Amino acid sequence: MGSEEFQKRLSQELDNMKNIQKSMQKAMAAKQTLDGQLSENNVVKEELEFLTPENKVYKMTGPVLVEQDIQEAKQNVEKRIMFISSEIKAMNYGKI
């Protein structure tokens, strides 16, 4: 292998490494976002447990707050937690 071939091969490998690093950074950022969303939803779930039937819950729909049933809100939060958890698991096992 000549010096020129070696330089070309080295340059290709360096480009491959840079692409891998970019992919890893994107994956890490996505995982951090999911972890943050999971934490937020767990806090919401805990807060919803303190509510009584007399309390009101509002959901932001676009620029408008719409009243939502407490049980429906709890179910929605639980579904989000399950979805986010499954996304995190998939990332951890390399399926995303």
TrEMBL record:
Q: Name one Pfam family in it.
A: Prefoldin_2
Which UniProt keywords are present, listed alphabetically? Answer: Chaperone
In its UniProt record, which GO terms are filed under biological process?
A: chaperone-mediated protein complex assembly; protein folding
Q: Which GO terms describe its cellular component?
A: cytoplasm; prefoldin complex
Signal sequence span is none
* UniProt family annotation: Belongs to the prefoldin subunit beta family.
The UniProt subunit note reads as follows:
Heterohexamer of two PFD-alpha type and four PFD-beta type subunits.
Q: What is this protein called?
A: Probable prefoldin subunit 6
Question: What organism does this protein naturally occur in?
Answer: Trichonephila clavata (Joro spider)
